[in-house]
Amino acid sequence: MQYDDNLAKFLSKNSNTLYMDFLGQKILILSSLNTKMNKEKVYIFGFEEEYIFKLENTEFKMFNLNDFLNIIRANLDEYKAMNTHFENIIEHKENILLKGNLIKNFFKKSFILKQKINKNLKNLSLLNEALNLLAESSPHKKALKPLIFGVNIALKNSKEILTRLNELHLLINAIKNERINQSLYFLSVLSAIFLPLNLIVGFFGMNTDGLFLNGDKNATWYIFILICLILAIGLIVYYKKRKKELEFDDKISKKSNK
């Protein structure tokens, strides 16, 4: 295989995983992620019939099939490890919500996590596409099949993780909206209770002659009992309405089945 200036210029502008036919030469660019070193390493492979070549410095050298498969396998393991890490994060956040707690700065953190998941998903998609194209024109198709199968599983897993994060995002929104609605409902009930009380206080606070109960020594107690009665009726109505709200897992009563 030959390494010329045209290929050098092309490779300098492309670092993503890619399989292509460049000027008659079959080239695989493999972007390998090293999570331990937090660095990306790019491998360049060339193919001629059943032979595999690896670009080292400015020269293509013969490369062993098993070593080639091991590099791809190691790259795939890195993506799988990231998926596992993302799953653990989401599961931890789900457990927090199940305990009835909210997550601080969830929307900001979930946006960052979503970007990382999407990046991993993109890399897996590129690897899957490159390996499928390589397998179509390679005599090593049989050896590549298990790796392609593994990439497909990791790709599906990555999509499921993204779906779980989106559902978690919707759940947080729903919980916050429900709490806001409950607060507004409680404030409405309080307004309904205290509105007649304010009318009573305003009525008896008028500086006019011949006021109702004027001169009665027990008038204060009458008004106090009336206020307590209104408060009690309001709280009873509120409690009954809350009691009618069923939990999601409440069983259907026998009467409703008849």
Automatic annotation (TrEMBL):
Family matches, as Pfam families: CorA
What keywords would UniProt list here?
A: Membrane, Transmembrane, Transmembrane helix
Subcellular location field:
Cell membrane
Q: Which domain of life is it from?
A: Bacteria
Principal location: membrane
Q: Which GO terms describe its cellular component?
A: plasma membrane
Q: Give the transmembrane region(s).
A: 184-207, 219-239
Q: Which InterPro entries match?
A: CorA_TM1_TM2 (IPR045863), MgTranspt_CorA/ZnTranspt_ZntB (IPR002523)
Membrane topology (UniProt): Multi-pass membrane protein
| Example of a GO MF term | cobalt ion binding
Alphabetized NCBIfam families for the sequence:
LPXTG_anchor
Report the protein name in the record. Magnesium transporter CorA
